[in-house]
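User: Some background: our group keeps a shared notebook of sequences we're curious about, and every so often someone picks one and asks for a predicted structure to add to the entry. Today it's my turn. The entry only has the sequence so far, pasted here. Could you supply the structure so I can complete it?
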Amino acid sequence: MHNSSGEVMNNYLKRLMNVKMKFFFSTVGMVLAFNVNAAQLADLDVTIQQAISATPNIEKGKALYRNCAVCHSPEGWGTSSGHFPQIAGQHKSVIIKQLEDIQLGNRDNPTMRPFADPVIKLGSQAVADVAAYISQLPMVPENSVGYGAQLDRGKELYEENCKQCHKENGEGKADKFYPRIQGQHFNYLKRQLHWIKTGKRRNADIKMVKQLRDFSLQDIDLVSDYVSRLRPDKSLTAKSIHWKNPDFRKGFRAAPRN
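Assistant: Of course. Here's the predicted structure to add to the notebook entry:
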C-alpha cells in the first residue's frame, strides 16, 4: 500500500465524524444509543487511531485470533453458508474499523460484541496485532457463489454502483476503509446488502446507502452473485481448499463450514 499512515488516519477521522454526526441526529442521545459515555468514546477513538499507526506483532495477533477462529475458522474462511464471513486477507484498516463500529454500536452484531470488546479493551496494540494477523491469512480458493443467473446484469449493477469504491475486481481500498469483497461468500454478501438497504447495518457509507435504496431484492441477488465470483489474485489465496492453518492444533473445534 502506497498511502502513508497519515493519509489513512485522515480518511479514518473523516469517516468517523461522518458516522458520529449521522447517528447523533438520527438517534435520541448518542450516549444512550451506544451505551458508551463521552470519555469512553474519546478513549476508543484514540485507541483506533493508534491501532492504524501501530507496528503490529503477528505472534501476539495469532494468540488473540484464537477466539475469532471459533466462528471464522482457524483459516479465517468463515462458512460457505455465509453465516460467518471470510475475513482472511481483509485489509487491516477495515478490520480495525469494523471492530470499532461493533464496539460503538454502529453495527449490530451481538455475536461479535463479546469477542470485540475484550480486544478493544486491551488497547491499540492488541487491535493492530489481531487485525494484522487476520489480514495476512491466505484466502479461501473456492468461496460459495450464487446461482449464475443474469451475470451480465450483475456486472452492470456492480460497475454502475460499486466499482468506484470497491475497484474493478472487488479489491477495495485500504486507505479509504473500503473492504475487499472479492472471494466473499454469496449469502453473506446478499445479507449485508439487504441489511444496508433496510437500515439494519448502520455503518455503511452514505453513498452506498442511497444507491441501495433503488435496488430490488433481485438486484441484490444479482450483484451479490457477480461479486462472489470476483477472484482475488492467486498470491492472496491458499493453494488448496484443504489447506489448514499450521498455527492451530489438529482437531481445533470451530463452527461447521457449511
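Suggested note for the entry: Residues 5-135 form a domain with the Cytochrome Bc1 Complex; Chain D, domain 2 fold (CATH 1.10.760.10). The first helix runs from residue 5 to 26.
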